[in-house]
Amino acid sequence: MGMNETDMSALRFLLGEHRKGVIPRQRDFAEELGISNASVSVLIDRLCRDGYAERIVHPADRRSVGIVPTEYSDSEVRGTLHKMHERMMDAVNTLTADERIGAAKFLAAMIRSVEADEAEEIQSRESAVASSSLPDRKSDRNSASSASDHLR
């Protein structure tokens, strides 16, 4: 489809939300994709310019802008995916049963290795947050009151 990875992720998110009956706002894209509001604005501009999305007045909050997919985006994605799935099936059909079993074992092992790395990273981040020392509000209040007592 000639799109970069972020644009494809945004379009996938948009179509998924549309299937659920949800009209996302730009901030929803920023949160989902982990990018800044400015980057989302440029991204949505690009999706609208290329005919994949359009901005509308958000029905739940008329002060807000919603993003909806166009009919073109749905047909384009379906057409692209259909062609891609055909090519994937052609590739699978060139393998023998034993080769498919070997490929499946390899891919399953690769997925487990990535998931293990992700789980370790999440656990590491959670440990770092738990061990960080946040100020104790009660002791801060006590310090502030004793400081004001000294000033009197």
Fraction in helix: over 70%
Mean pLDDT: 83
> How many strand segments?
2
Q: Kindly, what is the distance between the CA atoms of the first and last residues, rounded to a whole number of angstroms?
A: 72 Å
* Coarse morphology: flat
For the largest beta-sheet, the strand count, sense and barrel status come to: 2 strands, antiparallel
Series of H and E elements: HHHEEHHH
Question: Key features?
Answer:
flat; mainly alpha; disordered C terminus; single chain; 152 residues; 6 helices
What's the topology here?
Layout: H1 5-19, H2 26-33, H3 37-49, E1 53-57, E2 65-69, H4 71-93, H5 97-131, H6 137-151
Antiparallel strand pairs: 1-2
Structure commentary:
Helix 2 (26-33) packs across helix 3 (37-49). The chain has helices at 5-19, 26-33, 37-49, 71-93, 97-131, 137-151; strands at residues 53-57, 65-69. Residues 137-141 and 143-152 have low confidence and may be disordered. The relative contact order is 0.07. Strands 1-2 form a two-stranded antiparallel ribbon. With 152 residues, the protein is mainly alpha-helical.
